[in-house]
Write a structure and sequence with these properties.
Bound molecules: zinc ion
Largest sheet: 4 strands, mixed
Structural class: alpha+beta
Number of strands: 10
Strand content: 5-15%
Radius of gyration: 27 Å
Length: 375
């Protein structure tokens, strides 16, 4: 799922915390089902306003529990060298966006298990609160009971062994540990994940048609559809990762980028360099100092009429807008960085000198080639 339309709410422990617009839907659904249905059914003697106060507080504490679950993943991940960039709350709960996948089975196992473990602990704490308040402060006991119950459900649901649910990650890490084969473990775990997704869809449709519980049925089917999609996407991503494993910037860069002065016109560049030599990238430098880079892409984008007027420095990508890569940097992280910053090329810098250029198209072409060859 694209997490584009989300609000930034600030940072918790250095992790960006975001609210996707679909979260408001689930927040309203949960609050209404508590305040409108559950509490009135179980405690018919409460005054009307109390249903809403307890319902809203319970609902907020529930989402705080979801955040705690994601934070547990994130903090354990960080300790195990899997940094987490952001946590987003959305319609199906929360997701922690990792900057990369685990490189060790034990790290993935700890990180994946941390979330459900946290939910169980929170569930236990609310259980205790319920024990101490039951029969004494009814609204708090009611709230604590539901929160204990829902956190245990949350832990149990997440432990379903279908990737990318936490249980699926635990499953993959165990397969990975015993077989030593990351690729095959991922394939199996994501296939189980897709199977779980289909099972939810099938179960949901059955509930809708056989029990006529349309809401629960469609909700379940919807979750199943989401899981199936997420499992497929995770598998694709893992394949990409596998295809680019061990490939470094220095292996994929183009090192034959001639240096041109910033003041020659586009026409001169085309006539003197491109037509005669066939180069497709240029480093624009004045007396050895890099000012920017220029690719065929930039040249094609410039209007053809003014080519004899425009100096190359006007259409180049200036140094200030460039992100640089290092020779030993892995290709996948470069591709991710390009995607994040929406840039199409990165110069490779070694000891302050540009030694080559990486274009996004080349990287993607390489990815497809390796992917098709199955290497
Ligand atoms: Zn989790």
């Amino acid at each position: 799922m694209k997490m584009g339309s989300a609000f930034n709410l600030g940072k918790v422990f250095g992790i960006q915390f975001r609210l996707h617009y679909t979260w408001f839907i689930i927040f309203i659904l949960v609050t209404f089902s508590l305040s409108w249905q559950m509490f009135p059914a179980d405690y018919p003697h409460w005054p009307q306003f109390l249903y809403w106060v307890v319902g809203i507080v319970t609902s907020l504490l529930f989402f705080a529990s979801v955040v705690a679950h994601e934070l547990a993943h994130s903090l354990v991940g960080r300790v195990n060298d899997i940094p987490v960039r952001s946590i987003t709350l959305f319609i199906f709960g929360g997701v922690a966006q990792m900057t990369r996948e685990a490189t060790k089975a034990s790290a993935e196992l700890k990180m994946a298990a941390a979330g459900p473990a946290c939910s169980l602990v929170i569930g236990g704490l609310f259980g205790l609160l319920w024990l101490f308040t039951q029969g004494i402060i009814e609204p708090i006991a009611a709230m604590a009971y539901w929160l204990a119950y829902i956190n245990v459900i949350l832990a149990a649901f997440n432990l379903i062994p279908g990737f990318p649910l936490d249980g699926g990650r635990v499953f993959r890490s165990l397969l990975w540990r015993f077989t030593g084969n990351y690729k095959r473990s991922t394939r199996i775990a994501t296939q189980v994940g897709r199977g779980v997704g289909y099972l939810f869809i099938f179960g949901g449709i059955s509930i809708a048609f056989l029990l006529h519980d349309w809401f629960s049925g469609l909700w379940l089917a919807f979750i199943g559809w989401f899981l199936e999609n997420a499992a497929s996407a995770s598998y694709r991503q893992a394949q990409w990762q596998e295809a680019l494993r061990g490939v470094t910037a220095s292996q994929v860069m183009t090192s034959s980028c001639p240096v041109v002065p910033p003041n020659i016109t586009l026409n001169q560049l085309v006539q003197e360099h491109i037509f005669t030599t066939g180069y497709s990238c240029f480093l624009v430098a004045d007396e050895g100092k890099l000012e920017g880079i220029l690719t065929l892409h930039d040249i094609k984008a410039a209007s053809p009429q003014n080519r004899d007027m425009i100096p190359v420095k006007e259409i180049m990508t200036p140094v200030s807008q460039l992100k640089v890569a290092y020779p030993g940097q892995d290709a996948l992280s470069i591709l991710e960085q390009m995607g994040e910053s929406d840039i199409n090329q990165m110069p490779v810098v070694s000891e302050g000198r540009v030694i080559g250029l990486i274009a996004r198209d080349n990287l993607i072409r390489l990815l497809h080639t390796r992917f098709e060859l199955g290497t």
